[in-house]
Amino acid sequence: MNVDELINVAEKSLKEEYEKVDEIVFLNSKKILDAFQKENVSEYHFNSTTGYGYNDAGRDVIERVYSDVFKSESALVRGQFISGTHALTVTLFGLLRPNDIMLSISGLPYDTLHEVIGIKQNPSSLMSFNVKYEQIDLLNNDFDYDKIINRVKDKNLKMIYIQRSKGYSTRKSISIEKLENVIKAIRKVNNDAIIMVDNCYCEFVTTKEPIEIGADICVGSLIKNLGGGIAPNGAYVVGKKNLIDLVAERLTAPGEGREVGPSLNMNKPLLQGLFFAPSVVGSAVKTAILTSYVLEKLNYDVEPKYNEKRVDIVQNIIFNNKEDLIKYVQGIQMASPIDSCAIPQPSDMPGYDDQIIMAAGAFTQGSSIELSCDGPVRPPYIAYQQGGLTYEYGKLGLLKAISELKK
Ligand SMILES: *Cc1c(COP(=O)(O)O)cnc(C)c1O
Questions:
Q1: Which atom of ligand 1 is the closest one to the Cα of 165?
Q2: Against a cut of 0.85, is the pTM above it?
Q3: What are the sequence ranges of the domains in the chain?
Q4: pLDDT tens digits, one per residue of 246-258
Q5: Ligand 1: distance of its center to the CA of 193 in Å?
Q6: How far, in Å, from the CA of 194 to the mean position of ligand 1?
Q7: Which of 255, 340, 341, 396 has the most CB atoms in a 10 Å sphere around its CB?
Q8: What DSSP string runs through 214-251?
């Protein structure tokens, strides 16, 4: 069978999987539309402020819409957050004080947070301010309940930290159901610790988000799922009002907090991006499902399988050899709308320990809701593919990547 035939057959077999995705897209679209209408989003909200950014009606309505969508008391949605890493950093520094203990219960956090926490030495890390860090690894792709309950019973803990998406690890991503179970178990023995969730890549893949199942604060990037490919940068933090206020005081300045921060012509793209996000996430998930199905048929290991319940938009292909990883990633770049003649090579990146190869032919630099594929160049040579603003562009990317692989 040639590649076109293989994809045709795949699409016929995947009808049922795609219908499940469509249902989720519909429910999340309804969530967005209801929020826009409840908050009476109006044309004047597209205006924006400069300078200090006092009285930015558009910015404020966006934050109310985010609160509705996440069922949270409060939200901070700002272009002044440079990235997901920055929003996570500001949140951690906003909430933790010297001698506080932060406990990660989902194992080692995302690579770029190692220097933020101090797992990798950095003179500006949380540890350099005497914040303590502890970690409990996952056990068989779920939480290690015995260890967690034992540790959190001792109330001397400021924060419990959970990262849902796998990052550059080989574990599975954490479903909302698993998250809900662990939060319930923690709350039976500890009502005080702040439960913080890194929600990057997980938004709108299912119909529930972390705050509504008991998390206190939750963070994600706008150049991933929620920006819908339209937000030019930024990130969000949602959760309890007292916590969001502390994060805002760290983002700007104590005493100024959320009252400042000009939206600089970003209100309309942030609203429009959120409006498109359910559908764009649906396209990304379908692209991932198709990729999983086809590459499995081509005898590569994949995670998740095409018919597994998805938690995030990330699809792993475990190549087990360096050349195939590089060829596949280069193929994705060749199929990109932007910089299609660039040929990605493994290279050093700030915040990452291994060399990374990265296909990112995107309208927005570093955007990984657009079709993108990257991975650390180390065994077992896993490609982390995500995104696809439309399913059709996702499919075209996959076709090109496979033809490169077959060369
Ligand atoms: C992408 C990602 C981050 C960091 O986001 P950037 O916007 O790239 O800084 C953090 N955590 C997880 C799980 C991610 O996937």
A1: 13
A2: yes
A3: 3-27+277-406, 47-273
A4: 999 999 999 999 9
A5: 23
A6: 21
A7: 396
A8: T-SEEEEETTTGGGTTT--S-EEEEE-HHHHHHHHHHH
- Residue 118 CB-half CA count within 13 A: 16
Residues near ligand 1 (Cβ within 6 A): 83-85, 110, 112, 163, 165, 167, 198, 200-201, 221
Residue nearest to atom 8 of ligand 1 (CA): 84
**Residue 3: Cβ-neighbour burial (10 angstroms; 0-12, 13-18, 19+):** middle
Architecture of domain 3-27+277-406 in this structure: Alpha-Beta Complex (3.90)
Residue nearest to ligand 1 atom 12, measured at CA: 200
d(CA 164, CA 174): 5
Statement: residue 138 has pLDDT above 80: yes
Q: How far is ligand 1, taken at its centre, from the CA of residue 12, in Å?
A: 34
Percent of the chain with pLDDT over 70: 100
If you take atom 6 of ligand 1, which residue's CA is the nearest one?
84
Ligand 1 centroid – CA 85 distance (Å): 6
Could you tell which of 163, 173, 174, 198 is best to mutate to test the pocket of ligand 1, judged by most ligand atoms within 8 Å of the CB? 198
User: Helix or strand or coil: residue 163?
Assistant: strand
What is the CATH T-level fold of the domain 47-273, as seen in this structure?
A: Aspartate Aminotransferase; domain 2 (3.40.640)
Q: Enter the tokens of residue 52.
A: 């200090």
What rounded mean pLDDT belongs to the chain? 97
Q: pLDDT tens across 354-389, in order?
A: 899 999 999 999 999 999 999 999 999 999 999 999
Helices first, then strands: H and E counts in the chain: 11, 12
Q: Rounded to 10 degrees, what is the CA torsion of 124, 126, 131, 135?
A: -140
What residues form DSSP beta bridges with 161? 104, 196
Confidence category of residue 350, pLDDT binned at 50, 70, 90: confident
The token duo for 256 is 């100024």
CB 39 within 8 A of CB 251: no
CA of 406 to the centre of ligand 1 (A): 31
Q: pLDDT of 218-249, one tens digit each?
A: 999 999 999 999 999 999 999 999 999 999 99
